[in-house]
## 1
Amino acid sequence: MATSETGAGEPLVILHGLFGSRRNWSSIAGRLAEHRRVITVDMRNHGESPWDDLHDYPALAADVARLIETAVGGPATVMGHSMGGKAAMLLALRRPELVERLVVVDIAPARSHSSPLLLVKAMRRVPLETLSRRAEVDAVLAEVIPDLAVRGFLAQNVVTEPTGLRWSVNLDAIERNGESIVGFPDIPPGAAFEKPTLFIAGGRSEYLRPEHRAAIARLFPAATIETIANAGHWVHAEAPGPFLDAVNRFLARGAA
């Protein structure tokens, strides 16, 4: 897995969401690194990490487990957004000895309501071989994706090489594993992660809703849920100040 590190102290591993990369978290990581060692990760099939045909949560959680074992050598605080949040939750449930505290950003331990396949289809429509600039990519995406923020997010996956443009995300693997990505693995009865856990919800997002609270309480009995009212799904990007305040309050409690 491709990673970046900054800061020193207690380790914090950050896992991005679908179509994201560790670069999306560089600003947040820099702020959090004032008091801890922050490791940002490119998940498999994203960014600079290797591609693989398999892209489900057991595989993603196993990747992160190996990273913590080799790069940290002991338990770490793990924070994940969306897809990364589901991987972090499964890691905590299956390998609790590797997770000191858990932060889950705008995702629930349940099936998500939206599918990545529409975005994959939109990205496949872009004739990268005939384009040379991200602005041209945005223009093609705009034909099917009206939201400027979503287009900008997807366009960050465009890499410029001497031979032209290419996607840094493995669209074939995302499409093939789409059902696994929107789902969440079945957890055996009685299994739970009992260490401190924070769920951060975007007030304008539909990914973490009141009906998910029962599952959260069952699987993460020490969890608290904070809602950032004026943020959508990309809470950390849309409301970085309140997001950092919530994370730092939680980490301070956990260190007490």
Note: The radius of gyration is 18 Å.
## 2
Amino acid sequence: MEQEHVVGVDIGGQTAKCGIVNARGEVLAQTILVSNTFSDAQSFVDALASTLKLLISDAGFEGQIRGIGVGAPNGNFYTGEIKDAPNLPWARSKNIPFAKMLSEAMGGLPVALTNDANAAAVGEMTYGAARGLKDFIMITLGTGVGSGIVIGGNVLYGHDGFAGELGHTIAIRGGRTCGCGRQGCLEAYCSAIGVARTAVEWLEQHPDESSLLRLRENVTSKDVYEAAKAGDKAAKEIFDYTGSILGRSFADFIAFSAPEAIVLFGGLARAKEFLYEPIVRSMNESVLPIWKDKVKVLFSSLSESDAAILGASALAWNL
């Protein structure tokens, strides 16, 4: 039987989204596996393989899968390894031969791996808001802050496969400790976890000001978004602060690759009505004059799961 389908897997800090994709780029079936409850890589790989086998079987595509493409934090396109991914408990401070392990668990089915933000960039370039763009930067705002850099229509990997870790550029010198161990990383401020940290700091620094966020025992970025939608002043200020930091960092990124657009993707990007204005304002205040008002800020036009699944699956067609 002709192998007319591939599998795309997007591994994030909280979940792994899995989908079966056909040659037209349609996600025919998908499912989700919680990814942050495993303490060792083999347990996660075994659970993922079981999930994929069930998905393929239930969809009726046994024997029709050409290969598996995976997007993961700190995924190395060249080696197939996940190296020291701080937001994955089973890959923290470790070097995991992930593609090899998953291929073995799937009975020898070929597996290709890349960084999760690179996968999202490929998906967006092929099917979404970046369609037709040759030079853009994909920023994923989720548990962490990831990035995929596309120059001349090609994803930038660098000599070792790890190019494009813009979430770990320094946004604030001597700032918060990031999950990677450094201080002041963009991720420490502009990820979902970073927004929650900002909210806690704001509440502590403004004890006499009322906010809907005070009703939450453990504030999350989702709480901040819902409060902002309800008109909460504090929540709006938190997003303004977050957007301003993103905009300043975007100005630095523009100086590197002169993109036509910066595309935002991920759970936190849902708050675009509160992030867009401070991002653009701060970016244009900070960027070199030759790029002022030239670089578009776009939000993904694909569903959160589809962009990364489609991008990861694209790797598998060449296996």
Note: The chain is about 35% helix and 20% strand.
## 3
Amino acid sequence: MPLYQAIVLAIVQGLTEFLPVSSTAHLWLVPWVLKWNDPGLTFDVALHAGTLVAVLLYFCRYWLEMIKMVLGISGGNAGATVGGGTLAEAGSVKLLGENRQLFWFLVIATIPGGIAGWLFERAADEQLRSPFVIGPALIIVGLVMWAGERVGSRVHDLGQVSLLDSIIVGVAQAFAVIPGVSRSGSTMAAGLFRGMNRETAARFSFLLATPLIAGACLKKGLEIHHSGLPADMRMPFLFGIIVSAFVGYAVIAVLIRYLERRTFTVFVVYRVILGVVLLAVGWGLRH
């Protein structure tokens, strides 16, 4: 795999894994447009590892605070520098003290997505990566996001997330096994319907995604461990991790700040347009 292709795909992964626009759709579309070969399972592990590093680095203080609460350790200075280091992030971490069960809510909410991924991910990757699946999924979830913007109360923060909220968002995450749905898109939309404000929907989505991304890395990593990493993939693998981690971290920080003052409208429009384009591409390929 040429190094420049690895860098381009890592940038695409870092951008689209956390934006609600479907990384699967873009990682299918970019190589197809540029007539590149499928990067394969090995590089897929690198991309997932990079985005895992990004989300762990950004939300490390959140996880530390939740683990401390689970262990019964009194919280320290939750207002210290966290993740992106902004005052909004520091305030968000403080809210964890108002929801001491959030760690267990995340554990429960991870179960539907974990089951769906374990049972259907390989089949979905092999059988559903088609413009006639990805296109409609992009459009439908985009419209669901638009509806969430319209009807959601947008008043709940992390301190007010309930068990039922977590379960519903977790079930929404399970649908992300379908290419084009987007893990962040489906979970953020569900968060809006449950009354979360936009940035809380994003933070909860990223926290919830962390165990699944880690599980995907572990599962796929074990699959390539037995065969070993080919010599010609070592540099692309390394650059895939580094670039996707760097870009992913930046995207998380920018998106959360963006959602503090703006809506999901730009992502809704983008999803619908891209979905229509993919359907047109699929129609053209058939004729």
Note: Residues 115 and 142 are 24 Å apart (CA to CA).
## 4
Amino acid sequence: MKRGTLNSAMVAMAATVTLASAAHAGGFNRGSANLDGLYSDSIGVYGGVTYVAPGRSYTSVSGVRVVAGAAGAFTQGEVEFGDSFTVPYASVGGQIVDNVACVGSYSQPYGADSTYSGAISYHIASQSLATREFGLTCAYRHEMGKGRLSFIGGVFNEHIEYNQARNFNLAFGNTGDSKINVTSDAWGYRLGLGYEIPEIALKASLMYRSQTNHNASGTYTNTPFATLATAAGTPAATAAALYGANTSTTASTTASLPQSVELSLQSGIAPGWLAFGSVKWTQWSVLQSITLVEGIANQPFSTSRFFFKDGWTVTGGVAHRFNEKVAASASITWDKGVTTGWDTLTDTWTFAGGVAFDVNEKVQLRVGGAAINFASGTKSKTASAVDYTATSPNEWGYALSAGASIKF
């Protein structure tokens, strides 16, 4: 079957969509596995990285914290908390025998990186969620009419690492830090269908990625209570009530990361022109709260509350091939906010563009950029009298991406 004439444009499109999906989209979404090799008749290597600067902040914070054993109200002005991050991906694969293609992939599907300053760090000084996925996905391809139907399936291993720190008393910097580090591995799977007609650059796919269930374990450390009592004037009993009774012990928790379904479609619409779009549903409602417990007695000492709604991500765009070497694409992505008032993860709009350059028939280079608009939102829900509320303004962030592919 003859391959299409818009290959460069199609790859530029794929790079743009990857960029948009990585741009701090709903919940903790970041990137997805690159499976381009499933649609190739040759073996190829694909890779790239996206840098995202979300630029998130609170314009006002108010709440209650405990200092020297006594509760006191506080207010705080602007607090920047959205740390910049990078999202790499890599995959290798293609047709291995007649009608069968396989791809090995590396991606970072979820993540979060935040650092807080001032009085709010009593509640949360920093937190990070890092994930990495190693997957193997195969497709059985069957000629159907003018096109080719692919039955897709695969498995992946997902590793997560979660870190959290809280400051006990601001007057002594990090003297009272309470620190948590837990890790976990879980297995999941993906299933899908694909259909393509290369002559008109048509490709449609429906992909399902399963939920993953994690039993994470690690360590929990506290500043010695004697230090707190001497330096901060805080009774050991107060420190124990807030942060647990051990200065160093084990920590564990259970959590699930969501399943998702994505429908993608692209097609040539005129000579040298391609239109594309996708709709993705992610079951973020599976992530309600995470409670960490310490020691063999399983005493709770830290609860992160999310109570997310399910997320929707919708992308649409066009790509154009200018000549045999250069193609470009532009897209708009809307991501439905998942917040229910426990955070400020509201709607985002991403305006992205990408350019692809064919060095030769086997090597392609890609670059892209995006502007990200975050709608304003308010953290209005509190878990107890000792908690805080905050407001995030309408803000802009940006993302930059680069990638390459080599076919053999």
Note: The helical segments are 7-22, 225-232, 236-243.
